[in-house]
Amino acid sequence: MVDELFAPTVGADGVKRYIVPGTEGKKLISNSSRNSFTRCPRYFEMSRMIGVTRVQEPKPLSVGSLVHRALANYYQGEGAESVLAEVEKWATEELLKLDGLTEEGHWTEEDIDETTVMVIDVMSRYLQKYGVGDASDYEILAVEAPFIVPIPQLYVRDGVTRTRIDPKYAYTGVFDLVVRYKPTGQVMIVDHKTTAIGDFDSFER
Q: CA-to-CA distance for 107 and 95, rounded, in angstroms?
C-alpha cells in the first residue's frame, strides 16, 4: 500500500507529493514522455524539448484531460456543479478553436456537442456511484498528487536474475486520487481511465 511505502510531503505551494527517499537528484522519466519518444523521437524533441504544441489535442486525449480536470475539481471539494462548469468551459474553448481548422481528425461542432452530452451523462453516473460525502466509506487524502519512485532493473549474475535500482533515473507521474477506505484504514491509489467511454455511436448503443 502507498502509505506503507512512503509518506507524503507537502510543499510550500500546498501540493501533497509522494517521493520515495533516494530518488532525489535523479533524472526523471514519465510514462507520457517515454511513449512520446518511442512513438516518434522527432515529436518528442518538438513537444518536450522545444515546446511546440498542437492547436487541438487528439480527441481521446482531449476527453481524457477534460474528465481528469473535472474530477480533480470535484474531489478538491468544489462540488458536482464544478464538473458541469468544466465541461461547459471545455466546449466553449474547443468551439473557439474551430475557425480555419479543416484537417482530418480535428473536432467539428457536432463532435463537441455530442461529446459534451456524453461526458455529462458519464460523469453524472460516476458521481452517483463514487461521489463523496459524510456517508461515504472513502476519505480523500490527495488529488492530482505528483510522485517519484525508483526504477528497478533486472540483471543476470552467475546465472541468477537479480534486481537493482537504476542509479541515474527515477519514474515520475501523478496519482489521480489517493483515498483511505474508512472501514479498514486501507489507503489506495485511484487511476482514472476514460478509454471505456468510446465514441458517441457506442455511447448511444
A: 9
DSSP 74-119: IIIII-HHHHHHHHHHHHHHHHHH-TT--STTS--HHHHHHHHHHH
List the grid coordinates of 43: 515529436
**112-151 residue pLDDT tens:** 888 888 888 888 888 887 776 665 788 888 999 999 999 9
What phi, psi does 86 have (nearest 5°)?
A: -65, -40
- Strand boundaries in the chain, DSSP class E: 8-10, 16-19, 27-30, 138-157, 160-181, 186-190
pTM: 0.73
Residues 6+ apart with CB under 8 A from 16: 8, 9, 10, 141, 142, 145
CA-nearest of 60, 111, 66, 68 to 87 is: 66
